[in-house]
Description:
Elements: E1 6-9, H1 15-26, E2 30-35, H2 38-49, E3 55-59, H3 65-79, E4 84-87, H4 104-129, E5 135-140, H5 147-150, H6 163-182, E6 188-193, H7 215-226, E7 237-238
Parallel strand pairs: 1-2, 1-4, 2-3, 4-5, 5-6, 6-7
Amino acid sequence: MTQTDIALVTGGNKGIGKEIVRQLAQRGLTVYLAARNAALGAAAAAELAADGLDVRFVALDVTDADSVAAAAKQVEADSGRLDVLVNNAGIVAEWGTAVADITAEQVRTAYDVNVFGVVSAINAFVPLLRRSSNARIVNMSSGLGSVNLLSELDGRLATQGLLAYSSSKAALNALTLVYASALRADGIKVNAATPGLVPTDLNSQAAVPRGTRTVADGAAVPVALATLPADGPTGVFRGPQSLDDVAPW
Length: 249
């Protein structure tokens, strides 16, 4: 009998995160929908569970070490291990602010979620991931974090002026590679995904077109990375269309 994989998705109560939860559950995984807002998270999990999906809510604020630790204890008590961790929670802290006016506090706010929150989650869940026969970590990155693309100073991404967000996602990409190297011995794959430009709450304040891709489109590559076979790649950055799209670091 095939063992059901256990997944956890941070920031899973809306947008691409919720769609990742849906698609993973539709593939037969048991999915913990993690969200910092208990009411919104529980409602989203109940909605998906009503469709016959094995979705369970867990309270998790990636900026709160105690919250992350409590979530890991809950998953351990309920399931005993974790096969998939999708670090989807993310924020933009500097909408509408000129680059020269972006403060260190705005950058700290972005890093607290987009970088330190990922480290907290991986640190807490690695012991459970080590119990899996095919563990996968997926970090939700962005083309806005590609140093290669940002080096085009007049290009679309550099001129967005999202200093905190872009630099935090570049840092996330570096984390992805260092974790991928370090966790190979444990059989844990660590990869990054870019969902492309999807109109979500994250970019609701953007002054430029927010994209026409659906949340289902945006979730496709993260879900593919989250369901890689045991011989799948580690230390790669893929998307937005498919696993065949190699995003530049």
